[in-house]
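Message: Just now I want nothing more than another pair of eyes on a protein record. I am handing you a single protein, as its sequence and its fold in token form. As I understand it, each token names a local backbone shape. Take your time, and here it is.
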Amino acid sequence: MRRDSKRDAVGAELMREIPRFQLAAEFVNDAAAAVLALGRTELQYLELLQHGPVTEAELAGAVALGQREHAALLDRLELAGYARALPAPAGEQGRRVELTPHAREWIESLWGPLRDEGIRLFSQWSTRDLAVVTRYLAQASAMQEAHATRLRALASVPASSRSRPNRSRGGVSPAALRRVHVFAVAHLDGPLRLADLAARAQLSPYHFARAFKSSTGETPRAYVERLRVEKATELIRDTELPLADVALACGFSSQSRLTTAFRRATGFTPARYRRGTEARLGTATDAR
């Protein structure tokens, strides 16, 4: 028990230090960007190019930019003398882009001292400790990349995953619907007030409720309940959480409220749905 308490304390401290480290890294990058007179996305391009030439398609895809935005950004970097385009190798389509010596000199002068201090810090650590840190960073980076992909998907799809009437006059704009959707998905485990959703669309609650239904074909309340049921379905199917915990994680005040909403949406109770999922998985395992 004492060991678990110590582990929990260390874990809590780690969770506090990670955001602090990330924020400090952002401060460094923001300060360096100011010196270079670059924006954050332009700075990302320089970071991506540090390890060698990269195709234009790879650059644009890495930061999720459209072709027009990518071309404008690359033009600014070329005019500033930080990047240059190379002819495409034989048999390949599209140019490759690389850093200029001028850019590499600036990168070394701005980030080099921090790298050197990090090396001196790590020299005090054992090889085993360094291996643990390296493994953690690799896994954490993969988690963040996967989560970034999910967030980009949220930003690129309409607020409702099912078909809806075309937006009519007086409805909510697609951009506002995306903001509402991202906010709602991120806060499903707590109360979601109409005023909170309306604020994301920059409308009064009264006008938002009418405009939202006009655009999506469902009321904000029905929409939030549907999202809660969708999340509950995933947790019931993919985890072994007790149904009472599933209810709380999805923002239902009790397991009975989850059961009522789940049955209304699917025709099954959560318990029956879980038994059916387990049975299907058991059958698939037996077949293998």
